[in-house]
Specification:
Helix content of chain A: 55-70%
Low-confidence stretches of chain B: none
CATH architecture of one domain in chain B: Orthogonal Bundle
Order of helices and strands of chain B: HEEHHHHHHHHHHHH
Strand order of the largest sheet of chain B: 1-2
Number of strands of chain B: 2
Distance between the termini of chain A: 29 Å
Low-confidence stretches of chain A: 281-290
Largest interface: A-B, 89 and 89 residues
Mean pLDDT of chain B: 88
Structural class of chain B: mainly alpha
CATH superfamily of one domain in chain B: MetI-like
Order of helices and strands of chain A: HHHHHHHHHHH
Largest sheet of chain B: 2 strands, antiparallel
Structural class of chain A: mainly alpha
Radius of gyration of chain A: 24 Å
Strand content of chain B: under 5%
Largest sheet of chain A: none
Oligomer: heterodimer
Radius of gyration of chain B: 24 Å
């Protein structure tokens, strides 16, 4: 029942109890991951054996390789950052173009095209991965057979990972940017044209600044989604693994608390990103498009 | 001006078409070609339904397929039941600062990757983990019990992973419900149950369906959570696809499995939309 109606005590109490239980469920796994990054034991498991920073700072000499000496882990972290930057750049650029296409142009089949743009959101990530893998290798084989050309970038590896993640993240970017462009008051642009502004000037001084919150928001979402992506990435990955794939491999082998350390680092980084986003200009209403 | 407008249109169309045709349509065409051919000799193929026959004749594949579908439906249902009270609390009961704080608290866990969250569950639940140790300490069990590798564990992981995608559409659907409608219903003698059934659920249906579709989709296509929390017995269909494609290099079979999974998810999404009378485009824009 809503706040303005009388609620019996048991209902109010159970709301609170349920709320506490729900948020405990949400935060318990994260809390556990964070705590065991500091446990002085070779496995992230109880009992608690005292506080240590070995899993961050340990180096080869101490018998424990901490995160900052684990070059494979740091390498995969860097790989993820690079992939995410490319995916973000491509998604925001193409997403913006798509938003203008949907909102500002008229052509045959626009309805169908904008529906097709949503399709990647309901294709399981694994299938996006294998279909792109199969298609890319078909082209690569064709090029090899016909012209003896070895198109290395079409074989499993980072370029394919970027394309695979881009193929559905751009749908989300498109939704976010379109939603904002839809609310734009076109008379502002018309006024600028009447006052003699050029197309480029109008775009640069009026439309894009208005879109800025959505552009920043979709960039942040794209970056995070790329960083988190596992299903599509797993199918397309070559010799350089992004962080999620690397972590998955280690988790199957039986993890050391280095994984907890890197997880904690990710939590802190994403918390900082989230806070800066929320503290940012209030104009960017939370776009719930993720 | 006309040619300029046409040029603009072409410039804007080009990236969209490149993306949709190059990364979505043609790859799926390729996948369907793969799934419908069989290798008869090295580099010689002929059209065939052999892959689908294998699926049909091999009980393991069937079993995994049905199991994946049923567990996904179950996980979606549980997620809905767990998310609804929280969404209701955030949308209707709390106000002001605590409202936005609770909302942000729902978001935070999903800013970190699924790998991290799954790691948390593994540390909590495995035999040497936190929860079994806690149960021994409480005296509930004499020795630590293995809590990983059960179906229930997989469900917990799946529900956890997809919670956000249910909570957000539910909140936005419930927020748009006018409080005075509920007050009126109450004044007219409705009780909690009848108000829920006759006013709240019909109003929130688009949000409920949006959440369910996204959660179902993500669960069905999930690979990480079932394999890590379910171990060797997880029997998840995406795992079969991965095995065929990457481990056995049997792309034809993997492509057929991929299509079966795609068919299943499409069919269920379609059925969900039909049942609730929603439109795909509108639902996706809400989620």
């Amino acid at each position: 029942m809503i706040a303005s109606l009388p609620r019996p005590l048991w209902l109010r109490a159970s709301t609170v109890v349920y709320g506490v239980a729900f948020f405990a469920f949400l935060f318990l796994p994260l809390l556990i991951v964070a705590v065991f990054a500091f446990n002085d034991a070779p496995y992230p498991a109880p009992p608690w054996r005292g506080f240590t920073l070995d899993w961050f700072l340990g180096h080869d000499g101490s018998g424990r390789t901490g995160l900052f000496a684990d070059s494979a882990m740091l390498g995969s972290l860097w790989t993820s950052v690079i992939v995410a930057c490319w995916v973000t750049l491509l998604s925001v650029l193409v997403g913006t173009a798509n938003a203008f296409l949907i909102e500002r142009t008229q052509f045959h089949g626009k309805q169908a095209l904008s529906l097709l743009m949503l399709a990647p959101l309901v294709i399981p990530g694994v299938i996006l991965g294998i279909s792109i893998l199969a298609f890319a290798s078909r082209i690569a084989n064709l090029a090899d057979d016909l012209w003896g050309l070895e198109l290395e970038f079409l074989r499993p590896g980072l370029p394919l990972v970027v394309l695979g993640q881009f193929s559905y993240i751009v749908s989300i970017a498109t939704l976010t940017i379109t939603a904002r462009l839809k609310r734009f008051d076109v008379t502002l642009e018309e006024a600028a044209y009447n006052l003699g502004a050029s197309r480029a000037a109008v775009l640069w001084t009026i439309t894009l600044p208005y879109l800025k919150p959505a552009l920043i928001g979709s960039a942040a979402i794209s970056f995070l989604m790329s960083f988190e992506n596992f299903n599509t990435t797993l199918m397309l990955v070559g010799s350089d693994s992004p962080l999620t794939v690397m972590m998955y491999g280690r988790m199957r082998e039986g993890a050391t608390p280095v994984l907890n350390a890197v997880s904690l680092l990710l939590m802190v980084a994403s918390a900082v990103l989230a806070l800066t986003m929320m503290r940012g200009p209030k104009a960017g209403e939370p776009d719930h498009a993720n | 001006m006309k040619t300029q407008a046409r040029l603009m249109l072409l410039l804007l169309l080009a990236p969209a078409l490149l993306w949709l045709i190059g990364l979505i349509v043609l790859p799926h065409v390729e996948l369907s070609i793969l799934s419908l051919r069989a290798r008869v000799a090295p580099r010689v193929y002929e059209p065939s339904l052999a892959q689908f026959r294998t699926f049909y004749e091999e009980p393991l594949y069937w079993h995994t397929f049905m199991r994946t579908a049923l567990m996904s439906i179950l996980a979606t249902g549980i997620t809905l039941l767990m998310a609804f009270p929280i969404a209701w609390t955030i949308a209707k009961l709390v106000r002001g600062k605590s409202k936005s704080m609770l909302f942000v608290m729902c978001l935070i866990p999903f800013w970190v990757s699924e790998t991290v969250r799954t790691l948390g569950w593994m540390i909590l639940l495995r035999e040497s983990g936190v929860l079994p140790a806690f149960l021994v300490w409480l005296g509930v069990t004499p020795a630590p019990v293995e809590m990983l590798y059960h179906d229930a564990t997989i469900l917990v992981g799946l529900v956890y992973t997809s919670m956000l995608f249910m909570v957000i559409p539910l909140i936005s659907a419930l927020e748009s419900l006018d409080d005075s409608l509920i007050e009126a219903a109450y004044d007219l003698g409705g009780n909690g149950w009848s108000i829920l059934r006759q006013i709240v659920i019909p109003h929130a249906a688009p949000g409920i369906v949006a959440g369910c579709i996204v959660v179902f989709m993500l669960t069905l296509g999930n690979y990480l959570t079932p394999t890590l929390l379910g171990g060797k017995n997880s029997q998840w269909f995406t795992e079969q696809i991965y095995t065929q494609f990457i481990t056995r290099f049997n792309w034809e079979q993997g492509a057929a499995f991929g299509f079966l999974l795609l068919g299943l998810s499409t069919a269920i999404v379609w059925a969900g939309l039909r049942l609730s009378g929603q439109k795909f485009g509108e639902v996706m824009q809400r989620s």
